[in-house]
């Protein structure tokens, strides 16, 4: 929690200044517990956030580690040059287990865009030692923070999908028509063909009629994903089994929420830690793909897919 460029800090959740002493911090925590407890009319999701915030800053040792921060760039595998000129593959892995076939650069488009815009925002001629410094990121406009949050989310999903094994093929950052239109990931395996959206809204969000609601939700993410999937399906002559939206574990109340059909497509909203389970077993009612059809679909996509 709170490692998202879009999320509130632990201090913001506890409604205190970062410089308060330990006694004032403890009092603020107890007050927020009473205010947010579901039994007294509070929001269950916020109540959980308060508890997690206390875990991060509730002891002097934890608070000191939290205050030091670790930046937003360290969790990602890709390495960028100082000028932000392009994506470079990560160092060779020592793990020799068979991995999924992977094509494209997960999070690459958005991370490149973030690096370009953060330097533009800071100002030309100004030295920028660390574009992922927590203080810098949190002070940036929300549009920039969203680019970085989405890049990190896509990279996290890519690491999970890669470990599914050689029976799976995944395409990252797939272009879907317009200049900015893309599908974060397309995953093909025995359980079906899925379009996957990696999202991070900075906190829990609500759903209504098959779409996300909330101040931190830009546009209509599920509807846009389904539209992009239709574009790719027509171009490649394939049928998707379903759509999956992946959110950080702390932002979902249920790790797997199969919300049924949306615009004729089966959709599931899943926590990051549950993604591998869903991709292995498939969405309930979704069409499996087996035998020669897997090879046919893979060939069609390989011949058609273009990257963002």
Order of helices and strands: HHHHEEEHHHEEEEEHEEEHH
First and last CA, distance: 29 Å
Main sheet specs:
7 strands, mixed
DSSP, total strands: 11
Task: Name the helicity range.
Answer: 25-40%
Low-confidence parts: 74-90
Principal-axis shape equals: globular
- Overall SS class: alpha/beta
**Rg, please?**
21 Å
Helix count from the secondary structure assignment:
10
Number of domains: 2
Query: What portion of the residues fall into strands of 2 or more residues?
Result: 15-25%
**Average residue pLDDT:** 87
Strand order of the largest sheet: 3-4-5-6-9-11-10
SSE blueprint and pairings:
Layout: H1 10-14, H2 22-36, H3 44-57, H4 60-68, E1 79-80, E2 87-88, E3 101-103, H5 108-122, H6 134-139, H7 142-162, E4 169-175, E5 182-189, E6 192-198, E7 206-208, E8 211-213, H8 221-236, E9 242-247, E10 256-262, E11 265-271, H9 275-281, H10 292-304
Parallel strand pairs: 3-4, 6-9, 9-11
Antiparallel strand pairs: 1-2, 4-5, 5-6, 7-8, 10-11
Helix pairs in contact: 2-3, 5-7
């Amino acid at each position: 929690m709170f490692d998202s460029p879009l999320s509130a800090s632990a201090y913001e959740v506890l409604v205190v200044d970062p410089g308060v002493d330990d006694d004032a911090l403890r009092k603020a925590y107890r007050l927020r517990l009473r205010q947010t407890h579901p039994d007294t009319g509070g929001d269950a999701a916020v109540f959980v956030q308060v508890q997690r915030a206390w875990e991060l800053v509730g002891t002097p040792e934890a608070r000191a580690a939290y205050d030091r921060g670790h930046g937003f760039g360290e969790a990602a595998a890709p390495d960028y040059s100082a000028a932000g000129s392009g994506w470079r593959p990560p160092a060779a892995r020592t793990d020799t287990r068979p991995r999924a076939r992977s094509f494209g650069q997960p999070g690459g488009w958005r991370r490149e865009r973030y690096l370009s815009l953060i330097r533009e925002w800071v100002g030309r001629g100004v030295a920028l030692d660390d574009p992922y410094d927590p203080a810098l990121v949190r002070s940036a406009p929300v549009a920039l923070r969203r680019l970085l949050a989405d890049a990190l989310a896509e990279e996290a999903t890519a690491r999970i999908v890669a470990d599914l094994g050689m029976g799976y093929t995944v395409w990252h950052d797939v272009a879907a028509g317009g200049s900015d239109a893309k599908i974060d990931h397309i995953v093909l395996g025995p359980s079906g063909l899925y379009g996957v959206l990696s999202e991070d809204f900075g906190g829990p969000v609500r759903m209504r009629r098959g779409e996300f609601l909330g101040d931190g939700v830009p546009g209509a993410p599920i509807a846009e994903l389904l539209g992009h999937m239709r574009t790719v399906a027509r171009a490649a002559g394939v049928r998707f089994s379903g759509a999956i939206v992946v959110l950080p574990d702390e932002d979902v109340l249920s790790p797997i929420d199969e919300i049924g059909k949306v615009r004729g497509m089966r959709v599931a909203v899943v926590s990051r830690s549950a993604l591998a389970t869903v991709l292995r077993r498939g969405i309930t009612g979704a069409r499996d793909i087996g035998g020669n059809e897997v090879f046919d679909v893979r060939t069609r996509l390989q011949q058609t897919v273009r990257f963002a």
